[in-house]
Amino acid sequence: MQSSLPTQGQFMLAGQKHAWLRCKTLKSCRFAASLCWGKGGYSLMQITKAEVIPVELKLQNPVRMASISSDIQSVTAIFIRLETQKGQSAWGCTVAHPDLTGFTPEEIIQTCRDCAEVVKDLHPTNIEFSLAELERCSKGQRPALCAYDLAFHDLLGLASGLPLYRLLGGFRDRIQTSITVPVLPVKESVECAEENTKNGFRMLKIKGGLDPDDDVHRVRAIHRALPNIILRLDADGGYTVEGAIEVARALDGLLEMLEQPTPADDMEGLLQVTRNSPIPVLADQSVTGPDTALYVAANHISSGLSIKVATCGGIRCASEANTIARAAGMFTMISCLIEPALLVSAGLSLALSSPNVRYGDLDGHLNLTGDPSLPGFVLQDGWLIASEVPGLGGNVQLG
Fold this sequence. Notes:
Strands 5-6-7-8-9-10-11-12 form an 8-stranded parallel β-sheet. It has 2 domains: 17-163, Enolase-like, N-terminal domain (Enolase-like, domain 1, 2-Layer Sandwich), CATH 3.30.390; 166-396, Alpha-Beta Barrel (TIM Barrel), CATH 3.20.20. The protein has 399 residues and is an alpha/beta fold. Strand 5, helix 8 (186-198) and strand 6 (203-207) form a beta-alpha-beta unit. It has helices at residues 23-37, 41-44, 98-101, 105-119, 127-137, 142-160, 164-168, 186-198, 212-225, 241-250, 267-276, 290-298, 309-312, 315-327, 341-353, and strands spanning 47-63, 72-84, 89-96, 174-176, 179-181, 203-207, 230-234, 257-259, 281-283, 304-308, 331-335, 357-360, 368-369, 373-374, 377-380, 383-386, 395-396. The protein contains 15 helices and 17 strands.
């Protein structure tokens, strides 16, 4: 059967027609720049030093995903520290794991170091130009671009004296997050869910995708034990089209959403699930940046988009993906990888900036040990509440 979808290649030129989507970020940064001029001037914000600091972080509990062959035991966080003529330090961060980002830690670390040679010739108030230069330098490695994107946005916030979520839009100051129930047998899944609710969480994201029938049993068991808790199912691309539709119909009325039911590159399959599912379907791994967000939104491939800052290449590109979804009448969820608190803080800043962001899935830091970054938020009864500290609001303590 001939596909009803255009090829993604046909959308490459369309990206040039959507440059206006960057205006929101650009206006925010111009506002920040105007404030910075009054607090030390252009030259004092010049970047004088860039450090690349990789840190391997082990997981408290290994993570099993349907889309990968082995459990994830650790990830590599890459922190970027920028220092200005004024003596201010700003931090950025990304995360590296070949199964999560498509690149090895060594590849991303080397690209970040290559970009460190370029960054001293750039200026944070010229953020569009600067990030465009870094995008070229990063050679398609969006996670590497993300680290510098965060550092530049952190620096703008620090210089203006405003928290980043306000610079980006400031629609709200808090959002509820889900917490993950990993792939476990039915009994252990229920116990994990109950423990999370005792800690104040009212939204649970149940990982699945390995066995559709088992996933149905797990969701039903958790719902019986916790009938007032909101449940989401994340298949991580593990289902066939037929299997995904069967799961969605079996769990109608129990789930708030079904996330990435089919493989990331099977857009036609995801479209068929969306058309036949009684439950809203989110594209997650299928969304890797503004280009794929445009393709999914223009063809109504899913009900909404799950957007990850690290995957998209930073706040600028993730914000563009959200704006595309908003223009298409699609809601979004800001989500995360297994990542440090500083990177989660960036996702939260974006989630709080826009009314189009309906959901938060920002628990990626909770399963890490030895995270040197401090969050720019407070976690209280399942709510992430933003700090009013300028910039990303977090900090990094190394050594």
